[in-house]
Structure formats: C-alpha cells, structure tokens
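Sample entry (114 residues):
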Amino acid sequence: MVVPPRVRPPTITKFLKPYVLKMHFTNKFVSAQVIHSPTATVASSASSQEKVLRESLESHRDVAAAAKIGKILGERLLLKNIPAVSVHLKREQKYHGKVKAVIDNVVEAGIMLL
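Predicted structure, serialized as tokens:
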C-alpha cells in the first residue's frame, strides 16, 4: 500500500520557506538534511555515518567532518537543482564551530541562503 505524501494546507505553506537546512550533532557523528517544507519530505541529506565517508574521515565528529558534510550536501543539492535553502538553528546552536563549517561549505558549493 502506497501512502501519498502529506500536503499541508495552503494557508500554512505560504509562510514556510520551501527548503530548510537542519543539522544534528551527536558525540559521535554529524548529520545534516534539507527538508522540503510543503510536503514534509527530505530532499537531500549527508551524514558522517555513511559507509563511503567513514573511511575518508579521520574523526566523525569534529569541525573537519562537519565541513566535509556541508560540501557533500551542497553538491547533492546542486545535482537535485535546489538553488537556495534557509537555515533552521535549534535554540542552543550558534553560528560557530561545526554549525559554521556546515553552512559555509554549503554556500561555498554554490547554494544560496535565504
């Protein structure tokens, strides 16, 4: 049985940004994903848990790993023709360290921030 994607009412979607970048950091891994807000689906994601990246990274949780995740996510967004994203930071996240590394490398890949 195939479930159709959830579509939000138009009264809500006109206030949402179409693509939102969300980041999650644990003590072991770094992950980032871009969510398409109107349909609430994941447009693209990258994580230091991926098998391909595990071998190329020295550490899975430092700023260098976050920078690599941002670069890979930016390249994947360009392949899917997503030109711009907005950033959603949690309350405790500041534009510093790993967060800055992910955002800067996404922008460096050619994605515009809203």
